[in-house]
UniProtKB/TrEMBL annotation, chain B:
Xref: PANTHER family: ALCOHOL DEHYDROGENASE CYTOCHROME C SUBUNIT (PTHR35008:SF8), BLL4482 PROTEIN-RELATED (PTHR35008)
Domain Cytochrome c span(s) in chain numbering: 29-118
Annotated Pfam families: Cytochrom_C (PF00034)
Molecular functions per Gene Ontology: electron transfer activity; heme binding; metal ion binding
Protein name: Cytochrome C
Originating species: Pedobacter psychrophilus
Length: 449, 137
């Protein structure tokens, strides 16, 4: 009964403006148009009956495959980047910008109402990377990596005194975030993004050529491997594991293949830097955002090439003599999956849970933050995609899994997106968690059959 | 004939909107030309709404960079801006390439457009002002 009263209140407050509007219309009409009136009334009643009584917005505004549901478990927590979940389903979130001087949030649902509250926050450094492995929580700033010892319940024991395991990593304005993952042999893999778009002599400038033997690649534009249990490591004692990766934000260790997978953010500005070679449309579509399986010593080719998902070829970059058709050196590795350009893959997760249907087992979820460099064409992305995997290889085409984060159908300017998916994590019950770094929402996606 | 009527109508429209501006205020032909320059050179990063991109490309809305000192603003276009800037507590770090290949008139048009779009309202930037700043180097 109390519920019903509440809903009557909500009902009247929501449709008050409509009533006013209706009154005016009826007043102005010489003869009341009962057809229109009853049509509007029917629409109001229908929309009311379709309203989910448990949540304010059905599935937190997301569109999902049949049988899945979503809820917002936290809102307005800050610029939520990557996320890690402990064995009890409690949540750690990294923030791109400090909130009350702290960069990591610990969220719990003590009253079990499905909404998570900030239990405490810690670490005076902002950043993106976070990962739980073997009794430690790893977290990165844009220059360093720390680890916090966890207790038996995987809660941080001493939030004020982490071990600094990696330091002195390059962060020069572009692609500064240091995503990380830990393998099963206590090795930490860290992305160090290139501080450039395409290693031009004059970055992002009109027809500026590429620097010969791109000097950025000595200390950035790749993946570095470090020991999880050694303090104060840097370039001199890290292993330069893979190169030619412009910037990686989403990465994960695939236990089925026992190897690292990364999602590269492809280059920008093909048209604005090379208008004679690329149309606005080509520049909006190209190059591919690539999923790579990375082995030690691999070179993905940045800045000398990009992958063209339409021609299905590795193409020589215009900065290095390319014309959109000339193929690049075949020594560069091929992508595992090539997505359309500029969608900004910020989260990668191989699903190992048992809650979702069999199709999803060992497959890859990718959180696309959404594009900005497709202008003047409409932007793309702003969704979570899925790639099915079998025996360590894609077993079908990629598909959109969860969409509707942006809250609007067409996005011309990035700022129009109300939420942008960023980090992914799997809960102990097999639920999928997605963060948003615009408004600071955390979504939980479940399968209910 | 239809085309001619359209062109005449367009000229009338431009003329009438132009008349709304006082002397020294941004004129609408300049704003139209400025919009064309903006669309080609600025919009890919600063976006159609001038709102920029989180963490990367700064917004052009009601900031002192756009509305303040004209010499500094002209120099950002002539020399580029290769250092992070903070607006309303948010940091923007992508480099802006110099667009010194644009003519004095094009820079004057685009800056006048930006200073009078996206909710901004500020005086026009003249080609002579751009020329003077360019001469100083």
């Amino acid at each position: 009964m109390i519920f019903d009263l509440l809903y009557i209140k909500k009902f009247t407050s929501v449709f008050k403006p409509l009533y006013v509007h209706l009154d005016l219309n009826l007043f102005e009409m010489k003869k009341p148009n009962y057809k229109i009136f009853s049509l509007i009334a029917a629409v109001i009643l229908m929309s009311y009956s379709f309203t989910d009584r448990k949540d304010d917005i059905e599935n937190a505004g997301l569109t999902l495959p049949a049988g899945f549901s979503a809820a917002t478990i936290s809102e307005n927590i800050g610029r939520a980047r990557h996320i890690a979940i402990n064995k009890n389903g409690e949540v750690y979130v990294r923030l791109a910008k400090l909130v009350d001087g702290k960069g990591t949030l610990f969220l719990t649902d003590d009253d079990k109402d499905g909404k998570f509250e900030v239990k405490f926050s810690f670490g005076d450094f902002s950043g993106t990377g976070i990962y739980i492995k073997n009794g430690y929580l790893y977290a990165s700033s844009n220059e360093e990596v720390f680890r916090f010892k966890l207790d038996k319940e995987e809660r941080v024991i001493d939030p004020n005194n982490p071990e600094k395991i990696i330091t002195g990593l390059i962060a020069k304005n572009q692609h500064e975030t240091k995503s990380l993952v830990v393998d099963n042999q206590d090795n930490v893999y860290v992305n160090i993004g290139a501080y450039s778009n395409s290693c031009q002599v004059k970055d992002r400038s009109l027809e500026s050529p590429g620097m010969v033997g791109c000097p950025i690649l000595d200390s950035a534009g790749g993946i570095w491997k470090f020991k999880a249990d050694k303090l104060n490591q840097s370039y001199n004692n890290g292993e330069h594991y893979a190169t030619g990766l412009r910037n990686v934000v989403g990465l994960d260790w695939n236990n089925a293949t026992n190897s690292l997978f990364v999602m590269q953010h492809g280059r920008d500005n093909l048209n604005s830097s090379w208008p004679k070679l690329y149309t606005e449309k080509q520049s909006a579509d190209l190059p591919a955002e690539c999923l790579y399986q990375i082995k030690k010593g691999d070179n993905a080719g940045w800045p000398y090439m990009y992958y063209d998902q339409i021609q299905k070829k590795k193409i020589l970059a215009p900065e290095y003599g390319g014309d959109g058709k000339k193929e690049a050196d075949s020594k560069f590795i091929n992508p595992t999956v090539a997505f359309p350009g500029h969608m900004a893959p910020n989260g990668l997760l191989f699903y190992t849970g048992n809650q979702f249907p069999e199709k999803y087992k060992n497959g890859a979820f990718i959180a696309f933050h959404g594009s900005w460099n497709r202008s003047p064409l409409p932007q793309e992305g702003y969704y979570v995609a899925f790639v099915p995997f079998k025996d360590g290889k894609p077993s079908g085409d990629w598909e959109v899994f969860a969409k509707g984060f942006a809250g609007v159908e067409v996005i011309n300017s990035t700022r129009q997106a109300q939420h942008r998916p960023c980090g992914l994590a799997q809960g102990p019950d097999g639920s999928l968690f997605v963060t948003d770094d615009v408004k600071g929402s955390v979504y939980k996606i479940s399968y209910n059959q | 004939m239809k085309k001619l009527i359209f062109i005449l109508g367009f000229l009338l429209y431009v003329g009438s909107t132009n008349a709304q501006f006082k002397k020294g205020s941004p004129s609408s032909p300049s704003l139209l030309k400025g919009k064309a320059v903006y669309t080609q050179y600025c919009l890919p990063c600063h976006q159609a709404d001038g709102g920029g991109v989180m963490n990367m490309n700064p917004p052009l809305i009601e900031t002192t960079y756009v509305l303040g000192d004209k010499t500094q603003l002209i120099n950002i276009l002539l020399k580029g801006l290769n250092k992070p800037i903070v607006i309303d507590g948010d940091k923007y770090t992508n480099p802006m390439p110099a667009v010194s290949h644009l003519s004095d008139q094009q820079i004057s048009d685009v800056l006048t457009y930006v200073r009078n779009s996206f909710g901004n309202k500020a005086s026009a930037v003249s080609a002579a002002e751009v020329k003077a700043v360019r001469a100083k180097k």
